[in-house]
Amino acid sequence: EGAELATGGSRRGIAVSTLAEARFFAAGGFDDILYAVPVPRWRLAECSALAQRLQRFQVLLDSPQGLEMLLQNPLAGGKRWLVWLKLDCGNARAGIRPTDPEALALARAIAQGSPELVTLVGVYAHCGNTYGCRDVPAVQAIARDTTAAVLEFVTA
Q1: What is the architecture of the domain spanning 1-155?
Q2: What biological process terms from GO does the record include (predicted)?
C-alpha cells in the first residue's frame, strides 16, 4: 500500500534492494522496478527472469566485469538490459568513484557498446553516508556534495 501511495497509483518507478522485494512488487502489479544493487553473477538468472517478465526491470552496474556479464547473457525476445551506472560519491559500499578515470570509460562502454543488448538509462548515486548524520545540515551537505559530483561526472 505504501508503494502504491508513493507512486501515485502508477505502480511504476520504484527501487528495491533485494530480489525478494522485486518479486513481491512484481506480483503486486508493479512493472517498472530498479534493483538498486550492482548485479552479482549469482543473481543473474533471477534478474534475467524479472527483466523478461516486467516492462522495465532496471539494474545497476559499477564495473567492466558487470557489463561483460550482461553482454554475455543477453535477454530473449528483443529485450535489453536497462542499466544505471552506480557512482560511489562517498558511501564506499558499491559503485565506481566519479573521479576514477575508468568511470567515464565504463559509461561510454555501456552507452556505445551494444545498445541493442545493454542500454544506459542514467547514473545513480545513493547517499548512504548520510546514515550517520546527526542533523539536517549534515545531510544537506552530503546531498550537495553528491549532486555536485554527479553533475560534474554527467557533464564530462
Answers
A1: Alpha-Beta Barrel (3.20)
A2: D-serine catabolic process
